[in-house]
Amino acid sequence: MSIIKLYGRSLSSATRRAATIFAEKGVPFELIPIDTLHGEHKTPAYLEKHPFGQIPLLDDNGFLLYESRAIGRYIAEKYADQGPSLIPMELKAKALFEQAASSELANFDVLASRAVYEVVGKKRQGFTPDLDLFNDLVAKLLVKLDAYEVILSKQKYLAGDDITLVDLFHLPFGSSLAAFRSDIFETKPNVSRWFKEVSSRPSWQAVRDGARSTA
């Protein structure tokens, strides 16, 4: 059986998001390093595989797939019989999963990704972080997390009482933010309980400090 290749950068949030799902499912992969700092993701050879020139990119024996969440869904469904299911199958449970997945993008990622860029991405690129903007983004995110608190007061995870991809998708940016502002989660007891549990899973611990080949 051919080994799945994952093109990316070890410490990138999106690469680690995808790698977390591989770890949850116990699926080995080969990480193909892409030097984004020097523009390798914008070379003609890479753009042939990924027209947007981004990471990560999955190559499963010639089948190419980009976007970390799409990769996570693909792995979860291809290896549905391994590890936790991560995507519900029953109609209403699946609808609630899709609702939570949309909310992660619209209410969490849209703010968290920008906040992390301010304090991590800019510094890595040699720019000065705008701490006022960072704090403004965090303030807006805290309002969104008030809704998370209500949801998580009624159920264990964001889509119900079983863990799904949605919970895991929060890990890269959530962990980076918590390193700078511990109050982001700790002031909301149910959110804090949820994030501590999800971030302590072996799958995230395996990639938290950098995705690595497991094949």
What's the total number of strands? 4
Number of helices: 10
User: What fraction of the residues are assigned to beta strands by DSSP?
Assistant: 5-15%
Q: Termini distance? A: 12 Å
Percentage of residues assigned to helices: 55-70%
Detail the poorly predicted runs: none
Gyration radius, rounded: 17 Å
Strand order of the largest sheet: 2-1-3-4
**Rounded average pLDDT:** 96
For the report, how would you describe the main beta sheet? 4 strands, mixed
Secondary-structure content class: alpha+beta
Order of helices and strands: EHEHEEHHHHHHHH
Shape: globular
Folded structure, characterized:
With 215 residues, this protein is α+β, with helices and mostly antiparallel strands. 57% of the residues lie in helices and 8% in strands. Strand 3 and strand 4 form a beta hairpin. It is globular, with a radius of gyration of 17 Å. The model has no long low-confidence stretch (mean pLDDT 96).
List the helices and strands and how they pair.
Blueprint: E1 4-8, H1 13-25, E2 29-33, H2 44-49, E3 57-60, E4 63-66, H3 68-78, H4 91-124, H5 131-152, H6 165-169, H7 171-180, H8 183-186, H9 189-199, H10 202-207
Parallel strand pairs: 1-2
Antiparallel strand pairs: 1-3, 3-4
